[in-house]
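To: structure subgroup
Subject: Chain for Friday's discussion

All,

I'm putting the inputs and outputs inline so they're searchable in the archive.
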Amino acid sequence: MKSILLALLVLASCATSRVQDRTLVPAFQSAWPGVRADAARGGLTGLEAWDVAVETANVVQLRSLSVVDLESAALLGVDLQLVAGEIGPQGAAILRDRAATFRASVEEYTRVVLVKYVRRTRDPIVISSSSWAKSPPPAIARLVYR
């Protein structure tokens, strides 16, 4: 599974942005149920917002959530399973890779959509703005993967 997701990420980095949209979204959507379960086990709350953001691939929602916190909770969940003897070291390594791949896919997808926005609007201010996820420019909604 790791090699398939990594191959998708490599393909996505070399392809056009349209192909990136169509490979990255399935990559993080297919990994989501497992990452969600691990994050819940790691004690992360508010996963319903992630459910909606992942299902719709809405870049505004994805950017407003902390993928770093999600990955940290998922890794903690994996460690708890390992300590409890529910999984072995190889299983833990696979689950850790899945969490890292999920994070990378979400980050790359949101980056690609942001680049599209900047290219279409020529608005460079949005690149350095961390507040755009809270009050996004109206045009960004049209760039969400469908």
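Points worth raising on Friday:
Helices lie at 2-14, 17-41, 47-56, 59-64, 67-83, 89-121, 125-128.
Residues 2-143 form one domain.

D.
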